[in-house]
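Marked as duplicate of an earlier ticket. Keeping the data here for the record.
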Amino acid sequence: MSAAAPLPSSKTNSLLPSMGPALAEMAAKGQPIPWSPLLSVGIDSIDAQHRVLLAYINQLSATIARGQSAAALAEVIAGLESYTRLHFRHEERLFALHHWVEHEEHEHGHRHFEAQLRAFRERLDSGDSALARDVMRFLIAWLAEHILEDDMAYSAHLRAHGVR
């Protein structure tokens, strides 16, 4: 089954101010954030990977709602570090294969995400087990901004080159 086509970026960008707070509110209540066609970039492999990333966000939300433990938070951060490496390299291979000229700034965003996860892990390793809400805020902002804005920027280019 094919993924839903992404919204045109002008419509997507108009959703950003309202989508982030709504996602944050759901996560704060421990409610799982469902996959939405609004999050689809229209490329099945990337949408499937984004669903896994969303599952990590939902796992963290549930962990916080249960009164998270440092071990549960460490598990989420480690999973995100491992999985985002795989996901980002997949996107970056597609950028190279299909000569997306705006790849450098996008890849810089990937490196920033990886660095932020390392910083969270270091905080946790140093005994700061109260950082779960900081991690959640970061992930919600990433979901609302990076996927809805930055990932949509490459979607049309890759799909025009036959990536489905």
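See parent ticket for discussion. The longest helix spans residues 132-160.
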